[in-house]
Amino acid sequence: MIYNNVILKARDSGNIETLKRLLTAQAEASLTEQGCERFEVYHSESEPEVFILVEWWATQKDLDAHRSAPHFVNRYLPEVVPLVERNPHPSQRLV
Questions:
Q1: How far apart are alpha carbons 77 and 69 in whole angstroms?
Q2: What DSSP designation does 46 have?
Q3: H or E stretch covering 26
Q4: How far is Cα 59 from Cα 10, in angstroms, rounded to an integer?
Q5: Most CB atoms closer than 10 Å: which of 5, 35, 76, 90?
Q6: What distance in Å separates the CA atoms of residue 14 and residue 70, rounded to the nearest whole number?
Q7: CB–CB of 25/42 below 8 Å?
Q8: How far is it, in rounded angstroms, from Cα 9 to Cα 7?
Q9: What mean pLDDT do residues 8-23 have?
Q10: How far apart are CA 53 and CA 65, in angstroms?
Q11: Which pLDDT belongs to residue 69?
Q12: CA 61 to chain centre
């Protein structure tokens, strides 16, 4: 299993509602992909500019395919990434 967590921080608090909509759509599309075991989007209550993506992929090949999927290339990269500071955290699950 591949665990990928991404911390996103809105560059402008005026984009929070747009990011909620875009990230929700991204999660819904990603969950239909082969190998996507989990794709959750969290919005921080203590820091409203912060979003956390929790992704579980069956294999690295599935995660790589996700990164070339139309919704990633045509929505996430051009519409989400310019609005955020993005810090991916490939992770090892301990428990």
A1: 11
A2: S
A3: helix 16-30
A4: 29
A5: 76
A6: 26
A7: no
A8: 7
A9: 98
A10: 17
A11: 97
A12: 17
pTM (predicted TM-score):
0.94
Work out whether the CA dihedral 45, 47, 48, 52 comes out positive or negative: negative
Residue 20 belongs to what H/E stretch? helix 16-30
- The per-residue pLDDT for 51 is 98
For each of the domains in the chain, give its residue range(s) and CATH number, in order of start. Answer: 2-91 (3.30.70.100)
* Residue 46: both structure tokens together: 């203590």
Phi, psi of 52 (to 5 degrees): -130, 130
CA pair distance 39, 2, nearest whole angstrom: 12
- Burial code (b: 16+ CB inside 10 Å, e: under 16) for 19-55 equals beebbebbbebbeebebbeebebebeeeeebbbebeb
pLDDT per position as a tens digit, 27-72 = 999 999 999 999 999 999 999 999 999 999 999 999 999 999 999 9
